[in-house]
Amino acid sequence: MTNLERLQKLVEFQQVFLQKKHIYSLYAEEEKKAKILSEENQKLISQLNDLKVNIEEMEKKISEENSKKDEIVKKINDLEEAKEKIKVARQMRSWEKDMEKQKQELSIVQAQIDYDSAKLEEMKKNFSHLDNLIKENQQKIDELVAFADKIKSEHKEEIAQNQAKENEIKEDFDVQFIEYFEALLNKTEGNALVEVEGEACSGCYTILPTSLQGEIGENVPVDEIQILQCPNCFRFLYHSSWLR
Ligand SMILES: [Zn+2]
């Protein structure tokens, strides 16, 4: 393969790169948004799972407190029943003391139940809020992914052709060179091989050294064409007359 043929192939490779970039640009924003939302949803789902565990623990705690309350209520009822049988004043004082103690305990456990129930209510509200947020996000993600998929499917043939062309050209170059060229394409956004305009590189508009100017021109014989780079921006250079 002559250097001119190599340059022609690199031009083609660059065109394929630009076509791929163009197709990607049609859904890039949606794909990025979907990715950000997915990451956000992963965090929310983990928060939701933590909250679920906390709610279960709180429900268990309240259920234990209610059992305790039932026991106290039962003791108070027993005391009420026993009251009629008391004949001696001394026993009555002891009964009053017991009753006072149970009522105090009942009031403490009731306050704890009320406090924990309010907390549980708050947790359930948060749970439902998070759950809705996750569902809303998922809906948005699905829409964004569907949009990207639609564009990809509309350009299916073009994408396949580009990929085939790219693979075909890659085989004509050694891996190291083509990887470097691809990196340069990425860096220059698809402008890695440029024409020399007058005496300057049309990539960075730097005036080329005189020696380089002599090697890239209309009058260079085909078999003397070299693959040269701009010493300033490292883009590869060609003369427009070479590719006519
Ligand atoms: Zn340059």
Describe the protein in words:
The chain contains six helices and four strands. It is mainly alpha-helical and 244 residues long. It has two domains: 3-24 and 157-243, Orthogonal Bundle (Helix Hairpins), CATH 1.10.287; 27-154, Helix Hairpins. Strands 2-1-4-3 form a four-stranded mixed sheet. Strand 3 (228-229) and strand 4 form a beta hairpin. Helix 1 (3-25) packs antiparallel against helix 4 (156-171) and helix 2 (28-83) packs antiparallel against helix 3 (89-154). The longest helix has 66 residues, at 89-154. The chain is rod-shaped and about 130 Å long. The two termini are 18 Å apart. The mean pLDDT is 96.
Please outline the helices and strands.
Blueprint: H1 3-25, H2 28-83, H3 89-154, H4 156-171, H5 175-188, E1 193-197, E2 200-201, H6 210-215, E3 228-229, E4 236-238
Parallel strand pairs: 1-4
Antiparallel strand pairs: 1-2, 3-4
Helix pairs in contact: 1-4, 2-3
The protein binds zinc ion.
Residues 201, 203-204, 206, 230, 232-233, 235 line the site of zinc ion.
